[in-house]
């Protein structure tokens, strides 16, 4: 199953790679910082068609869907056609196609593909995590030697800005450095392969983190909401992802 999902996601990535005049195909969903492109819609349509052909009994839970079905029972695909759309509209090559396959509320397979870099992260529960077919593992660095990736809850900044910057200051004083990339699925995968040690964001949707969270967990890391609760599959959540060495830092946050 994982290989088949990887193949479908790679095909979807070609739509992203072949994008032409992106600006002419970009629209605002609401706020000026909440963007969608015609390519998001085309990628999601491709994924919906091909993934449901692969597993017809599954439901499809995608970012651009107008109506959401209950993904907590049976099989469900949770999909972000282009995670990091704003990056994509600026030709800032930090975006990904993200697909998770869930069974009864538990992520069983996760695939995150960065078409610009040709990096395919994949995982199956109990089967390990991989980058372009090679096993990956989270680092063993502690926070003082670690890089922290932050997301700024952009679409809900009025609610979470103060909390975000409070935690940023706390971690900045205790870590090596910060990064802010703007694509949560890739942020989780970067912790999974040891490019960073921690990522956090105060508001993400399941399609942002479902696939990447499994990649990180299968690479030896851990994920949770900022409260320590398990990540939900059908509702937005804050997200903390880290290697094992930095996991205790979650309990020390202000």
Molecular structure report:
The chain is α+β, with helices and mostly antiparallel strands and 254 residues long. It has 2 domains: 2-135, Fructose-1,6-Bisphosphatase, Chain A, domain 1 (2-Layer Sandwich); 143-252, D-Maltodextrin-Binding Protein, domain 2 (3-Layer(aba) Sandwich), CATH 3.40.190.80. The chain contains 6 helices and 14 strands. It has helices at residues 2-17, 38-54, 85-89, 157-172, 184-192, 206-218; strands spanning 26-28, 35-37, 59-62, 75-83, 96-103, 106-114, 119-124, 128-131, 134-135, 147-150, 177-179, 198-204, 222-224, 237-242. The strands form 3 sheets. Strands 3-4-5-6-7-8-9 form a 7-stranded mixed sheet, sandwiched between helices. A hairpin with a 3-residue loop joins strand 7 and strand 8. Helix 1 runs antiparallel to helix 2 (38-54). The chain is globular. 44% of the residues are buried.
Structure characteristics:
28% strand, seven-stranded mixed sheet, 14 strands, D-Maltodextrin-Binding Protein, domain 2, 254 residues, 2 domains, five-stranded mixed sheet, alpha+beta, Fructose-1,6-Bisphosphatase, Chain A, domain 1
